[in-house]
Amino acid sequence: LLAEIAFSEKNPDVRSKGDSRLTDKQLLSQIGLEEKHGEVRNNAVARLVDQDILQLLAVHDPSDQVRSTAVGNLNNDHQSLFVQIATKDPSYLVRRNAVARLNDVQLLGQIIEQDPSYSVQQNAFARLAERTILRKIANKDPRWYIRKTAIFRLNSRRMKSQDLFVKIAQTDPDQDVRQQALQQILDSEKVV
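and the corresponding structure tokens:
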């Protein structure tokens, strides 16, 4: 009965409710691949485990919501696919989800420097724990909000960077960035 509703009901909300109870992986795959309505497909894809189908949907589905869900359900063995999606997908939602799965430190640094979406950059920062890259970004990135976030990340990761914080507090052209660096200096003095 649920399969019949999921495939033949005219109202997509009802189809979505029908497929939300399905457990048959083959039917979920079929809905993920063939359903015309994006929300219904997304509901099915959220419960898919078939890695081949998830890869296909992560790259080719017309809905950014479905692509993002598919990326989230892929296992970590798909690093090259995450790289492709993180650097080429037109939707920041999908890129953001792919970035959250990346292990490539150098690429995370490039994404922080080059991706136009602040949300994607923030996800890259959350994954980045490489002190050298964070120091470079804190010191040289042309965007004040990126420099400020890098300073915060350096301190939150307990990466010794007092010399850099002092330099930035004295010379950065942006007041918010100088204040962030000064705050990190003051916070570290409280610990000592």
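(Above: one complete record from the training split.) The two ends are 67 Å apart (CA to CA).
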